[in-house]
Amino acid sequence: MRFGPHLLDEVLRRTDLVQLVGKRVKLTRKGRVMWGCCPFHKEKSPSFKVENERRTYKCFGCGAGGDAFKWMMETEGLSFPEAVERLAGDAGVELPKWSAEDEAREEKKKSLYDVVEAACQFFEEQLRAKNSNEARDYLVSRGLNGDAARQFRLGYAPDSNSALKDHLYAKNIPLEDMVAAGLVRPQDGDRAARDFFYNRVMFPISDARGRIVAFGARALDPDAKPKYINTGETALFSKGHLLYNFASARAAALKAQTIILAEGYMDVIALVRAGFDYAVAPLGTAFTEDQLQLLWRTAPEPILCFDGDEAGLRAGLRAAHLALPHLKPGFSLRFAFLPSGEDPDTLIKREGPMAMRKILDAAEPLAKVLWRAETEGKDFSTPERRAGLERALAEIVGRIGDGKIADYYRRDFDSKVFDSFKRRAAPPQQNYQQRPQDRRSFTANGRRPPPRPGTAGGGDAVSPAVKNSLLARSGRSGARSVKEMELCVLLFSHPDLAVRHSELVAELSLQDRILDRFRHELLNLAASGSRLENQGLEAHLVRHGMSDLVERLNARALASGEIVPAEEVQGNAEDIEARWLRAASQLRDMAETGPERARAFERFKSEGTEESWRDAANFLPRHDD
Q1: Are 218 and 279 members of one domain?
Q2: Is the pTM higher than 0.85?
Q3: Residue 424 and residue 432: Cα distance in Å, rounded?
Q4: Are residues 190 and 258 in the same domain?
Q5: Do 50 and 32 meet the contact criterion of CB atoms below 8 Å apart?
Q6: What is the 3-state secondary structure (H, E, C) of 223-283?
Q7: I need a labelling partner for 268 at 20 to 30 A (CA). Which of 328, 471, 557, 559 fits?
Q8: Which has more pLDDT, 474 or 387?
Q9: In this model, does residue 566 exceed pLDDT 60?
Q10: Claim to verify: residue 582 and residue 493 sit in the same structural domain
Q11: 3-state secondary structure 380-405
Q12: Residue 232's Cα: distance from chain center in Å?
């Protein structure tokens, strides 16, 4: 092992993490700890902590954290060895020498870089030569001019078996190096060896440091098979480990906190020239796990952009399933599918960059793509088919490596299945005979409706007096906000409820945005494994700019009479837990019936008929709501 634990610890010890992070984040001292706004997600109040004493940084909002090596990997897009080498150099720590074999291998690779670079320059020159009209015409037909060719170092491999080989021979480059670089096919004897690329437009491929290591090539002969080929595996190049344009896109992606994975070279070029500088593509193979990690080094939620045809949909689904075992908190994927028959190149040419921007902004999260793939266009009319869907969703969840994320996916899928198939319709109205001459219906909440309205003009219209009376009783618009505050006061006073009932807390639908943010912060703390108690939670909320909410939660009893200030909450844990569960159930009922209730009263307000009166009365609040 080149980097032993003692050496790594020495590099960390000599690295001033506060100074390193301070180059990108404005930090403010609070005691012995530095605080700032997290660079990995948008926030207004500082939740990002940096400690030289512990040599770590941590965001309490999105969960990002690590040491100086992790910082360099997340902000600079470096690999771990690259991060060690960079920080060791800055800290004056000498790294151990490699073995003679390692040094020889590195020297060989250095010479191969020169060989590939010489080939790239040759291809560029050939594209500008007089006899390369066909190649230039092809690029012009794709909307690429000389500026684009220079920007991406595009080239042309002549229609010859030995043009490149002869050129490199003239530079005193041995045949074995040409073969090792993947530029010449080996044969018996120098004369029999032939160029690997010929009569193709050339797309140089660089490594993460911007060094040309290989080529992608597009045939000009319409009958050539395959249309695209790449350099084979070499000491410099492994196509499953690199991404086209990654070296150039990395800085833009880190700044924008997003990166786009397109399907091909031309798509990337079109995206970059349209202003999307953070576009990359795989290298002629299916998306790989190593490429996924490259994307995550630059952005927490890369956008995978696929064509709108069947092949693009299949490729998107393969990428979705590939990511499942590697998901981690804060890191996922989004998917943008173009209209059928379009790719980024054609769409941008036809409709312009704004059309592409709209598609990227509407990119769907991974969970939604997986759900659609299992349900869209499928028939679930039988119990067996619905059970099959649940089994397929369970298999997806089972592939997720992170237990907490798997739990959230399970809840999300369960909720969708419930909403799609299991939610029961409202029970039909029933008439209960009180006396043979007096039949009165009961509302859904178990209460009698208002007295049967008198009619005006002998029809079904409800009299104005009765109508006004019922609409007045339909008020209580603040009932849901009162219930939301009741729930949050109990959670604030007894935050351990969020640990025992994290699933219920996650599913709460809170209309008050401040209370919903409180719920989110509480779930983050519960998920972090921190010990939850009232004082610690209050300090956390104040630190995150939520002191006004703390005052609200500590306020006097609210109108319902059931809520008391946090410091006055009495009763044993079972009573409090029962109160909270009852309140959560009541809020869920309010959320589920809210739209139906609004429609019913709106209809009664506009129609004023006896039928609409009965529908609206069904939603009158009970005294214990």
Answers
A1: no
A2: no
A3: 22
A4: no
A5: no
A6: CCCCCEEECCCCCCCCCCCCCECHHHHHHHHHHHCCCEECCCHHHHHHHHHCCCCCEEECC
A7: 328
A8: 387
A9: no
A10: yes
A11: CCCHHHHHHHHHHHHHHHHCCCCHHH
A12: 33
